[in-house]
Amino acid sequence: MTAAALDPDFLDAAAGACNPARLAELWQAMPADMRTSLFTLGTFPDRYRGAFAESRDRRIGLDLSALPEMMQREIAWCVFRIAERGGVVRAEGMTALARRLAEAIADAGLDVPSSLLAWPASRWLREIALSVTRRSGKLPPPATMRHVREQLNRCCRQLWAGYDTRPWWQREFWDPTEDARIPLRPHEPLGTQTVYFRRISVPWLRQAAQWHFKTALETGALTWSTVHVRAGSLAVFGGFLDGRGPVPPWLASEPGAVRAFMLDFLGHVRAMRVECSRPT
């Protein structure tokens, strides 16, 4: 699943994760020539030059100066992280996001957010759509909102990881491209794919899965590709548990009851609708 395809509820959980002290650490750790509020092809450092994709109007760079200072630094840090990881910063999309954020902030009245993670991602999208409608009298085109959503999701996801100082295995999502501490094989087929643990809806099951997968990866008992598959299976099991009300980690008090419980789960799986792509 890509960042752009994320369920908005997933990134909504990042709201409130902003931490000025942590942002100051991230800001100071950046190269001095990336600590800026204006990015253009002419000012982008040579070592990252291929990471900056100009807009169609080459005179326009990525100008963050209309945003609150904290948000300027957050987005500048995201630009740096994208470039550092070998990604591409699309100036046109990021400029559109910055412009729409500034408009939404101007309309916020007393409830002015200073951080991109001050509001849930879904609220940002609502406020941006309302702001565009106030100014133009029309809803924003779907293509515009799609581009803004993609860039917003990209930044929120990076910031959520950047602000999180917990051990890597306790995070809500594991992204090897964002966190080099995740153990991988030298040539991991799914090494750029992310595991989203919030898909496992039962808290105790999610926490147990994270600890088990962390231990198995570190000892070599499981590979990253296998973790992907098993996390998906546990998400199905978690959905089954949700439908039965509160269930303890031991599932049932007697061994025979556990067997019956798991047979019920097997029936649940068999009754699920299989989703697959069809040949065209």
Low-confidence stretches: 1-6
Rg, Å, rounded: 22 Å
Question: Taking all residues together, what is the mean pLDDT?
Answer: 89
Between the first and last Cα atoms, what is the distance in angstroms? 22 Å
Largest sheet: 2 strands, antiparallel
Judging from the principal axes of the Cα atoms, what is the shape? globular
Notable features of this structure?
two-stranded antiparallel ribbon; disordered N terminus; 49% helix; 280 residues; mainly alpha
Can you give a write-up of this model?
- The chain is mainly alpha-helical and about 280 residues long.
- Helix content is about 50%, strand content about 5%.
- Strands 1-3 form a two-stranded antiparallel ribbon.
- Helix 2 (about 20-30) crosses helix 3, helix 3 (about 70-85) crosses helix 6 and helix 4 (about 90-105) packs across helix 5 (about 120-135).
- The radius of gyration is 22 Å and the shape is globular.
- About 25% of the residues are buried.
- The model is unreliable at about 1-5 (pLDDT under 50).
Task: Map the helices and strands.
Layout: H1 8-12, H2 20-29, E1 38-39, E2 52-53, E3 62-63, H3 69-84, E4 89-90, H4 91-106, H5 121-136, H6 142-163, E5 173-174, E6 195-196, H7 203-219, H8 224-242, H9 255-271
Parallel strand pairs: 2-4
Antiparallel strand pairs: 1-3, 5-6
